[in-house]
Amino acid sequence: MQANSRAYFLLIVVVSFALLGAALYMQYVEGYQPCPLCIMQRFAFLGIGLFSLLAAIAQNTRTLWQGLGMLSGVAGIAVAGYHVSLLLNPKASCGIDPLENWVNALPTAKLLPQVFYSDGLCTAPLPPLFGLSIPAWSLIWLVILTLTLAVGLIRREKNYR
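== Disulfide bond formation protein B ==
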């Protein structure tokens, strides 16, 4: 699949939204309550998905949307990395703090509270999924999606030279 093809971006969209769906499944079926950092990671996946969708649709501004998708991914990597570090250092906690109040004050928490409202703890012990914590899986997927967008941008730029 070429890095400038519509299918390339649509695959990223499908993966991003599937991961959001998995988060909602874990919340509503498995009963895991999202913490503020989980919600911020959802924003990163949403950003990657939406910007990749716009890149698939608009060829003229594809580089802009691809870059914004990568920026969403980098922000998500930072949040997920911090979340993983909290789990590795259980003495630290984001707990109920101003971050939760800030996340819950965002318009998205009011418009779609089922998706973007936070009421969990960042250090809550959840069972591992295939040996890794959920934030670790989030970090892995954010890195994969961000690198996929970056490699695609690099390849496309080489083709235009």
